[in-house]
Design a protein that fits this description.
The chain has one domain. The protein has 15 helices and two strands. The protein has a two-stranded antiparallel ribbon. Helix 4 packs across helix 11.
Length: 339
């Protein structure tokens, strides 16, 4: 084998090893987590069930960002815009067209995929900080666009729209919150499995090749323009599904619910969970949901400062996020087995 062939072979192995070993949990751990997600809602109050539903929803949005940033290496601060489009698509279809809530979710995914793909086209000329600024501008503009007069009949303008929360089908003896939780869990599992398989596929390897070295990827035959826009489209579609589920769970959509603050929170969740580690998306979602509440319980007047200190400690102690903790746990378990 020539030196060039060895380099190609080594590169192929490095790219293929990432999704198989570092992108997912082990089978045993996955089954334990799934069992907990199925059983816990049976023994807690509706408010806790609602919080768990929101954790899954934000986890999907963070996972979408992880595919874009951790998978293809494109930075985005505009996920709140795609989240808003998905939320409003479901809200408008449910309240104005009387379409079943479950049917609005794939429609939101298709609409947001098109939106993300089209946005990714001009974004091809940008990278790094400049791409982040472009997506930041998108997130900043979206709440104002939703308030435009000619859209007010559909979006409700500043006042927003009230969304009807669905009852459990087939007369199932469960509350609305519990049914919506299990419905969200099914959607989340489907998208999670799809995301894992995507990153293990040829397209996923193309994403990661672009992330690691765009010039090398192009020289090896990867269509950089196609895969970068495809990553934007897939990420936007998953974020749109999260937005739809969020609108149904919260029962309300309004422009000021989808500001740049939401986009930054999702980016923060990705960093805390571990960039490129899909299970960490839900750890990051838990952080952005529960830690602000913890900070407020410690000091209501200085909750922002407390949250900042907690965030600083997390980044300082575990700079690679939850993924670093998972790796340390695996290493410790391996040592215990040897002993």
């Amino acid at each position: 084998m020539s030196a060039a062939e060895e380099v190609v072979a080594e590169g192929h192995q490095a790219v293929e090893a990432v999704p198989k070993r570092a992108m997912t949990l082990g089978t045993g751990t996955s089954l334990v987590v799934l069992a907990a997600l199925l059983i816990v809602p049976l023994f807690v109050k509706n408010f806790i069930i609602f919080q768990m539903t929101m954790l899954l929803i934000y986890g999907l949005a963070v996972l979408a960002l992880n595919i874009l940033t951790g998978g293809s290496g494109q930075f985005s601060l505009g996920q709140s815009a795609f989240y808003a489009v998905g939320a409003y698509t479901s809200a408008v279809l449910m309240e104005h067209a009387n379409i079943n809530y479950a049917l609005t979710i794939p429609v939101s995914a298709v609409v947001c995929f098109g939106f993300g793909y089209l946005f990714g086209k001009p974004a091809l000329r940008l990278s790094g900080v400049y791409l982040a600024l472009a997506t930041f501008a998108l997130a900043t503009a979206m709440p104002q666009l939703l308030k435009l007069n000619f859209l007010e009949h559909w979006t409700g303008g500043v006042q927003g729209l009230v969304v009807t929360k669905p009852d459990a089908p087939f007369g199932l003896p469960m509350s609305q919150d519990m049914w919506l939780y299990y419905f969200t869990l099914i959607v989340t599992l489907a998208i999670y499995i799809f995301s894992v398989n995507l990153l293990r596929s040829r397209s996923g390897r193309a994403f990661m090749a672009i992330r690691d070295n765009e010039i090398a990827a192009s020289s090896m035959g990867v269509n950089v323009a196609l895969y970068k826009t495809l990553a934007f489209g897939v990420s936007a579609a998953i974020t749109g599904v999260a937005g739809s589920l969020g609108a149904i769970a919260v029962q309300f959509v309004a422009p000021d619910s989808y500001t740049i603050t939401l986009a930054i929170s999702l980016f923060l969740g990705m960093v805390v969970g571990g960039v490129g580690w899909l299970p960490g998306s839900f750890v990051g979602a838990a952080f952005i949901i529960f830690v602000p509440n913890m900070a407020e319980s410690i000091s209501k007047g200085l909750s922002g400062a407390v949250f900042g200190v907690l965030l600083f400690l997390v980044i300082y102690l575990v700079p690679h996020g939850a993924r670093q903790i998972a790796i340390m746990g695996q290493q410790l378990a391996g040592r215990l087995k040897k002993n």
